[in-house]
Amino acid sequence: MLSLVSIDATRSRLAGTLDIGAMKDAKPLLSNACATGVRRFDLSGLELIDTAGVQLLHWLKTYQAKDLTLVGAPKAVQRTFALIGLEAMVSP
Amino acid sequence: MTPNLPPIFFDEARDLLEVFQRGLLDRGARDAEAINALFRSAHTLKGAAGLFSLEGVVQFAHAAEAVLEAVRSGTVALDDATVKALLEAHDELERLIDEVAQGREGQGDQKLVKVLLARAGGATVPVAALAQAPAKHRYTVTVRFGAPVMREGFDPISFMGFLATLGELSDCEATFPELPAGDAFDPTSCYLHVEATLVTSVSADTVQSTFEFILDSTQVVVTEVVVEAPPPPPPPAPNLLESSTPRVESRLVKVPADRLDELIDLVGELVIATAANQAVASRNTDSAALESLATLNQLVGAIRDTALGLRMVPVGETFSRFHRVVRDLSKQLGKSIQLELSGADTELDKSLVDRLVDPLTHIVRNSLDHGLETEADRVSAGKPPTGTLRISAMHEGGSVVIDVSDDGRGLNRPRILSKAIEKGLVPAGAKLATEDIDELIFLPGFSSAEQVSELSGRGVGMDVVKRTIESLRGTVELSSEDGKGTRLRLRLPLTLAIIDGFGVSVGTGRWVVPLKSIHECLDFATVVESEAHHRLSIRGQVVPFVRLRELFALSGDRPAKESVVVVEHADKRVGLVVDALHGAVQTVIKPMGPLFQHMEGVGGATILGTGDVGFILDVGQLVRRVAAPRARAKEAAC
To answer: Is B176 at the interface with chain A, CB within 8 A?
Structure first.
């Protein structure tokens, strides 16, 4: 289950699971956040991310908010990105 | 935490374990290719488990792989002790997989891991062993993951994770070249392409095999870019992984069983709807419609046979598990027993095969425990010291016949009779025909502490075996010869879904006789020999008959002209007298309601083209009921 908590107008915190099972809700939720001006997602509350999650974040950066930054990624999340060479997309 | 694994993982894992066990038990297969196949099973299982981070399974598969690697290189012999250790690894892997299926993930018996690794020559390096082997190859691996991969339960990044365990993975570059904007983007479709460099000691085929679960939709190209100098001697051992036989592309598609069931249900409805159309056309004597329906009927029949064929599997897969049962139990019992299998390629409906395992296992255990003697007893009886258990399968008419026979001591009939009297199942002093004594072992309550040992027992008697087989519309026949052995013959229908039937009527009721049981149809008046004794004379042969009207207590008067349908089961013929014959009908077997389930002589129900319900006759039961008492009376008279 994914949750998104607004920190301020441009920052939100993701928590829970960003995997294929969460995609139905995650796409409109995160897309809407970007549309309303959020430019930084804090991933420190993410317990699990899979390819679908990585792909969704990539899609957001490509089409919704090119200046979106992903910060606070736990080690396991960083490793998932690193396995396909996308480690630069996230920062700790 | 146990990941949410796709069902295909368990299917594949169990298939691999089955191949692994079969390979180990096949003493005749000890050549390079056979050892290679064993190695591949362990290796592929390790790879699949690695994708889902199932460390326990990976550890055991790796240990088994290490032993087989040592066998390949000639440092370890595939002798009885090695086979035993590998079989134990198989059992532990099976248990671990079962645990994962139940949502738990255990670690497995660490002592056994040590035993295996010690046998492999002290290879104590765990999972990453392959990664740490001297690198020989540099590959560029390009993967274009298919759109449905994630929806099918696979996580593409996990595949890359497993690839990293094979060696040094670097220069990964992920792209999403077809990633659409806006609503066209489906977040459950995979748009990921990855290119990476892998430096490893394994072959390109092994790298490719990492993706074998998703190759239907995913394109994988493995290109060797640099070949490093081969390591210095020792002289190269034959690489058993590189088979001289070209790799055959798999043409198999795995389909969940419930999808097949759904298809067969729909085909059943199609059969009924076609029959209904035909009934309407016949009623209206619409010849043009009847003609076009004839073509449709042929096509529906072909679709029906093809759909049913999809569920047919060889019984051999079930049989082969008995190699292990016989091997283990004969050791436990101190008996020398060989197992002979034949007809393993005989095909049967998958749903039947699955439900046959328990009864067959019970019969085999009984035979090993009670039927076959010890070496000493056999020698003193003038028999070869090694007993033989035979399991065979063959098609006979519309049925599959499975025989389980042994060359053991045979049934001890005096003891069976005395036990039945002692248990009050038979009155004291009763004189029974041989067949009736044999039938006693199928009575509920016959199993006793004496009959049920630790091995053949488990609280299941032969009554349960018989009930299970009969619930599958099958029959059990027993024959035994004192001192020479016992044979149990299971006769099962090919399918539980749709059969070719023959429609008959009695009064207003419609009945269906399975077409393959019918020998011939005759005018009753021309063949009746004795009404009083219910005997027909057909070309000089006496055949008993029964009127369905009397058998099922149906109302109404007999018509002036009756017909007789001569049916055959287990080499016995019986005439079924009916009011009228209606010809062949495709019959979709529907389960009977609880009220009718115990109706003797009726095996199921069907919906006819007219929309009426017809009862399907259980020919086996009818023949036994009509023919058997006469045979026994004859035997008793002799």
So the answer is: yes
ipTM for the whole complex: 0.95
Using a CB–CB cutoff of 8 Å, tell me whether B175 touches chain A.
no
Q: How many helices (H) and strands (E) does chain B have?
A: 19, 22
Give the mean model confidence (pLDDT) for residues B428-441.
Answer: 84
Q: Which of B306, B372, B383, B299 is nearest to B338 (CA)?
A: B372
* Rounded-to-integer distance, Cα A19 and Cα B478, Å: 58
Q: Which fold has domain B498-637?
A: OB fold (Dihydrolipoamide Acetyltransferase, E2P) (2.40.50)
Q: What fold is seen in the domain B1-127? A: Four Helix Bundle (Hemerythrin (Met), subunit A) (1.20.120)
Domain B313-493 class in CATH: alpha beta
> What is the rounded average pLDDT for all residues in chain B?
80
Q: Do the chains contact at B150 and A52, CB–CB below 8 Å?
A: yes
Q: Measured between CA atoms, how close is B149 to chain A, in angstroms?
A: 10
B558 residue type, one letter: R
CB–CB of B316/B344 below 8 Å?
yes
DSSP B187: T
For the full predicted model, state whether its pTM sits above 0.90. Answer: no
**What average pLDDT does this structure show over A11-31?**
91
Q: Which of B161, B179, B187 sits opposite A27 (nearest CB)?
A: B187
A52 vs B contacts (CB less than 8 Å): 150, 187-188, 190
Q: B128-230: same fold as B1-127?
A: no
Query: Per-domain residue ranges for chain A?
Result: 2-89
For residues B504 and B347, which has the higher predicted lDDT (pLDDT)? B504
The domain locations on chain B are 1-127, 128-230, 258-306, 313-493, 498-637
Question: With contacts defined as CB-CB under 8 Å, which chain B residues touch A57?
Answer: none
pLDDT of amino acid B565: 95
**Residue B239 confidence class, pLDDT cut points 50, 70, 90:** very low
Is the model's pLDDT at B137 over the cut of 90?
no
Domain A2-89 classification at class level: alpha beta
Measured between alpha carbons, how far is A67 from A82 in angstroms, rounded to an integer? 20
